[in-house]
Design goal:
The chain is built from 6 helices and 12 strands. By secondary structure, the chain is an alpha/beta fold.
Length: 201
């Protein structure tokens, strides 16, 4: 069973539908017992970093997430869910992230003539071998919607990058922790393959 963490963030239902399409049993929950006993856990989300951390704290999910990670349960962050795994975000100065992976979330430069947020399909490069990208060619396109992007401290954690005026760390993996800035559930067959790779870990 795959548990999706419910913390009032947007986009949870489309992740659930994609997983059900892959034949998975899925539950959306904030119940610690269910989350801690799930085979795999996903932290999706669309929204603001500060509000999301507030919700996670309000629902007493921060320690639960840490325990899930410590238990070596495969854990996937999507979009805002990726950003929350890191130390901090320029979107919410002074608000601490989960700090599960080292790095920070920064705003796209405003002086490059680019549309912010970045909305649309971008090609991925794979600088390091990633289990999420097994069987996926370099240069495949996935769907992004974001105004802030990851600068990971350890480039060895980065399994996909994309370019949007700057180099965006688009996916990371370390141990049992996986995360994508893009939306695999909205990225057609490539995205479904990424989710399939996660559920088959």
């Amino acid at each position: 069973m795959i548990a999706i963490i419910d913390y009032d963030a947007g986009n949870i239902k489309s992740v659930e539908k994609a997983l059900e399409f892959l034949g998975q049993e899925v539950v959306i929950t904030r119940d610690p017992e269910i989350l801690l006993n799930a085979e795999k856990v996903i932290l999706p989300g669309v929204g603001a970093f500060g509000d999301a951390m507030e919700r996670l704290e309000e629902y007493k999910l921060i320690d639960v997430i840490q325990k899930i990670v410590d238990n070596k349960t495969p854990f996937l962050g999507i979009c805002l869910g990726l950003q929350l795994l890191f130390d901090s975000s320029e979107e919410a100065p002074g608000v601490k992230g989960l700090g599960i992976l080292p790095g920070r979330i920064v705003k796209f430069p405003m002086d490059m003539g680019l549309k912010i947020p970045q909305i649309g399909w971008n090609a991925l490069k794979q600088p390091n071998k990633g289990r999420l990208f097994e069987g996926i060619e370099e240069g495949e396109f996935v769907y992004f919607v974001h105004s802030y992007y990851l600068q990971a401290d350890n480039f060895s954690d980065v399994v996909a990058t994309t370019e949007y005026g700057v180099i965006v760390h688009a996916a990371v993996e370390r141990g049992n922790v996986f995360a994508c800035q893009f939306h695999p559930e909205k990225s057609s067959d490539v995205g479904l393959k990424i989710l399939k790779n996660f559920v088959e870990l």
